[in-house]
Queue: 4 jobs
Job 1
Amino acid sequence: MAKILMYTSAVCPYCIRAEQLLTRKGVSAIEKCRVDLDPALRDRMIELTGQRTVPQIFINGRHIGGCDDLYALDRAGGLDPLLAVDAA
């Protein structure tokens, strides 16, 4: 199964939507980094992605982007193949 890492916060509706899509796709485990609880995690997220907003989603170490990016990837047919690849 693919390894999913999501930088998130507790009250983010986009984070919830992204997680719902991943769950519908059969993802059972998402590693969540709560940037609202740990400022160092937000700093790390910004360093890795250049983005300040959540969610920031990684699949098998590849930065996907935010919620809109995840949905666009799914519409383009690119999400299922990424989720089918086992984490290295």
Job 2
Amino acid sequence: MNLAQVGRATFYRNFTSIEDILIKHEDVLATEFNNDYENIQHKSATSFLYELSKHYIKNKEFYITLYKQNLTEIIKKAIEKHINKKITPKNTAEKYGLNFLIYGLYGWILAWLDDDMKSTPDELLVLMKKYYSQPYDISK
């Protein structure tokens, strides 16, 4: 708080914890990503993941810090909030599909963070196209 030149009373009037600041910052970053993605002309699942990976690289220090501090719940809640803001399921099947999307995306991000985000967005794009263009047999 000294570095920010903010008194304790001012801090707690606006935030209840340090985690609240991180949540607010994640919300700002997610809104920034959504605004940037709106300007993308050719939208698809792979373009979304590609642009999202570029956003994560741009903010790598923040996301790696959340991961290392076991605060990835902040990432999950941001994904839920911003996807639920854009998509409203009309029935049970769509609700399940939406949750599959949210938690699949969250799992993908966690795996990438666990790998210290070593893969570039271009490398991830190649992997995504290869993985999602072939049938995947989970019965093995």
Job 3
Amino acid sequence: MNRRRTLPRIIGLTGSIGMGKSTAAAMLREAGLPVFDADGEVHRVMAPGGAAVAPIEAAFPGTITAGAVDRALLGARVFADPQALRRLEGIVHPLVGRAERAFLRRAARERKPAAVRDVPLLFETGGEKRCDWTVVVSAPAHIQAARVLARPGASRERLEQVRAQQTPDAVKRKRADVVVPTGAGKRLTRDRLRIMLRRRLSKRGERNA
């Protein structure tokens, strides 16, 4: 017989490059919810002393600089090589998954009403299946481009390459349970997130443990 216990509701937060996902994640933290930053965890395991450094050096020699993974060198090796990319994902994804499970256990112990999985490639990796509901942040394409191109070292070519790897914004919006606009100012974004939490967290629910 399965035991049942109340767990945090799991919110999957995602959005294409330049859509304001980091801003939305910060707002959810301000609302008191724990947020697991998947991309931040990737950076951590690739930093000096990180668990991914040694296996990445073994798989992709010459991509380590000063004890850390040189993401530019690594990206040049795997970006246009699907087989190499899968090899890299086989190293990094299990490490990130382990950290995420520990994060969710902490949220359960602390009796948080919800926990956020901030995952750039949520739909691309099937991660929405492990969420109670999904939130996509979205802005018009011209605002997205302006945000990205304002970043140091950004280029239109690189933006288009990243867009080609990501599920189109229109598709994400159709697949999402909630769409939060980020192109009309932070106040509207914050208000939409608050409304979402108020409506959805008022519906008590349990998940199988």
Job 4
Amino acid sequence: MKINLNGDVQIIMSNPHSYHNYFAWPTVTRLQNGKIAVVASGFRLSHVCPFGKTVISYSEDEGKTYTFPAPVIDTVLDDRDGGILAYGDKNVIVTSFNNTPDFQKERIEHGKGFSKHCPMKPYRYAYLDSISEEEVDKYYGALFRISSDCGVTFGEMFKSPVTSPHGPTVLSDGSLLWVGTNFRDINKNNCKTPRLSAYRIHSNGKTEHVGDIENFCNDNGKIVLSCEPYATEISSGRILCHIRAQIAGDSAITLYQTHSDDKGKTWSKPEKILPENGGAPSHILKHSSGILICTYGCRKKPFGIKAMISRNNGESWEDSGYIYTNEDSADLGYPSTVELNDKSLATVFYAHPEENEPAVIMQQKWNFV
């Protein structure tokens, strides 16, 4: 497959007249009313920031223009990783997760998640010190809200046992399956390898455990740290799941693939589908042609967004090259893709336009031959 870029890359979410102009971790989808919707974490100061909000923008012209981002999930904590899925006649679910004030303070002091220093430290501390323990108890975790009117309004906040960047998938029976990192494991002391778990998400906010993806080892026998999965059901009824994977202490990330033939109860042993440090996490789109399109971020030079396709329902993948490249920063990725009315594609991701500029949400339109 050859990638043809359609026009230049667009910035579709930013806030350039404010210090709160860092946006990241988006997801794009087509709503039932024909609009395209993008959610992301926005109005931040940086990669780790107490002011993050999960925001949404809409396009009524096939991604040519978007509305200014508006908050959907805005707790007192750092709301991250916007996921979105349209399902049923008018339902839309938006997902997110957050972290605690103590986690934020640790990052401020030790610099992890920032460049060489933490900008506006007194501002951050003043805000973090204003958050009560009761508020942390109420909002800490993986969160979601559901709309029943095509994303115009959203209902109450629910908590999920799992979290993943792009949220759940809809199965052929209309139910929602969310495969994600088990949040309970994250909170256990000394749990260095959280499980990936599958849950059904019901319209009343109730969650139902379906199954787990067992921890696994790489070719050298080292336990893989697995996280940030994305699952989708293919035409046969099989559920494919891509997993971000890395070894403890190693920054190299790659993709593994597993599948379930019983609606998420049991899963095959994950197999590596990209080379070491090939990139992750990924999103899978089922194109109207029957081809599966996987987009993912690459954080080795040249930094960028790559695509690969499968013509045989995930049995094998063809590396198709770059949709976007960036020589300035490896802080990019988390792409997802939507099919446009003319069968071409729009991939949404985050990146820094220039080395000293904050990250924003970008879109590149393209097609394949």
